[in-house]
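Reviewers of the previous submission asked for a worked example of the structure-prediction workflow described in the proposal, so we include one complete record here. The input consisted solely of the amino acid sequence. No template or homolog information was supplied to the procedure at any stage.
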Amino acid sequence: MFAPKGLGRRWAILIGGDAAVAMWAAYYAFGENGQVDFSFPSPEHYHLAALTLTTMYLALFYFQDLYEITRRRTRAWVATSVLTASAKATVLVAIVAFAIPAFDYGRRFYIVYMLSSSTVLLLWRVAVNRLIFERLNIGVMAFGFAEYAPLLAEEAERLGQLGWRFLGFASYADGANRNLITGPQPHPIHQVSSIDDLTRRFNPNILVLLGDGAHAPSVRELVKCRSRGIQVFDFETFYELTTGKLPLPFVRESWLLYAPGFAGSHWQRLIERGLDIVAALAIGLATLPVSLATAIAIKLDSEGPVFYSQDRVGLDGAVFRVRKFRSMRQDAERSSGAVWASTEDPRVTRVGRVIRKLRVDELPQLLNVLRGDMSLVGPRPERPEIVARLSEEIAYYDYRHFVRPGVTGWAQVCYPYGASVGDAREKLCYDLYYIKNWSLFFDLQIILQTVKVVIFGRGAR
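From that input alone, the workflow returned the following C-alpha cells.
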C-alpha cells in the first residue's frame, strides 16, 4: 500500500472513491427496496449496514492488490480484479446474511446492491485508472551530476507507467562535473543559464539536486522554485520517497543525522509498547487452537522437541533467546553451523514446510513481545554469528539495533526471504527506511501488509 511522493493523493482518491461508491450503492439498494426513511431514526440500522458493506469492499480491494499503485495496471487487469473482488463480496454477503439475521435485508436488497456496486465500481475504476494514471504526468529533472545519477534516472523511469517522466539532467553552461556520470548516458543533458531558465523551458514538477558546491543553485533560486509549486529534493530524499527504502551505497551518515526521522516521542513509544502487549495477548489467545494443533503435528511428524530456541541480537545489541515452533530436523545445523535457509531446504520437515509458509512457526515469539525483547513490528532479529559477519561487510548494519526487533517488519513485507549478504544489504535498505520514518500509522500499514503476506504465503522458505 506504499504510495510514493506525488502519488499519495492518487492513492487517497482511489480509497475515497471506492468508499463513496460502495456507500452510495448501499443507500441506493435500500431505496430501491423501499426501506429508507431518513425522517426518523432508522430501526433497520441503515448506516451501520452501509458502513459494514463499504468496509468489506475496501478490505477485498486491498487483498486484491487494487491499492498497489506502484505497479503497472492495465485496464483489463483493473476490470478483472474489480469483478473478482465483487464476486468474493457476493459470497461474503450471502454468508453474513445467513449467519446474522439482523443483516438479512432480503434477497432483492442484496441483488440490487451487488449489481449496482460492482457495475459502478468497475466503471469508476477503469475511468480513474485512465485519468489519473495514464494521462497525468509528473516531470522529474535532475540538476547537477554525481555517480548515482543513473540510479535516479532508473527510478524515475520505473514509475513511468504511473505518469512519471524523467526530463534529463541540467547544469549551468560550464557543464562542470559531467565526468561524475560513468558509462553510456541515454538521457539528455541540458545547459541552462539559471534555474528560472530551467523551469521556463522544461516546467518540471520535481527538481532533484545531485551533488553540491560551487555549481549548485543558490538557496534563493530553490526557495523560489518551491514557492511556484516545484518540489525540490536531494537525491537521498527523492529515492526514499519513491521506493520505500534508502539508497544504502550512497547514504551519507550526516544525512541520517540531520534528516527528520529516527525519532518517536516518549508517549508514542509508551503507546507502542502498550499496543504490543494488548495485541500479543489477543493474537496469542485467538491462535491458541492453531498453536496446539501445530504442536501435535510436529510431534507426530518428526523426532525432537516442539520448540527450538536460538540467541538473537536485539535492542542496543543485547542478546536474547527467541523461541519458535520447530520446522527443521532436530540436527539441522549439526554439520553446517549457523546458515540461512535455502529454497526447498532439505532440512525442513513436512509440517515445517506448511507452518513456515503460513508463518505459524513465528507464533511463540509473542512471548518475546510480552517480555519486551521484541515488538510486533521492527527489523527481524538475526543470530549473533550472522550479525558479526554482516556488520563487517555492510555499512550501517548496526543501525538496525537502535530499535526493538519485530515479529514482522517493513523489509519482510517488501522483500522476499534473504539467504545471502546481498539480500541482507537490500533488506537493510528497507529496515533503515522503517527506523527513519517510524510511526504508529506506519506500523499499522506493515501489519496489514503482513496479513496479506500470510494469507497468500508470499516469501517463505
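Residues 107-135 form the longest helix (29 residues). We consider this example representative of the routine output the project will generate in years two and three.
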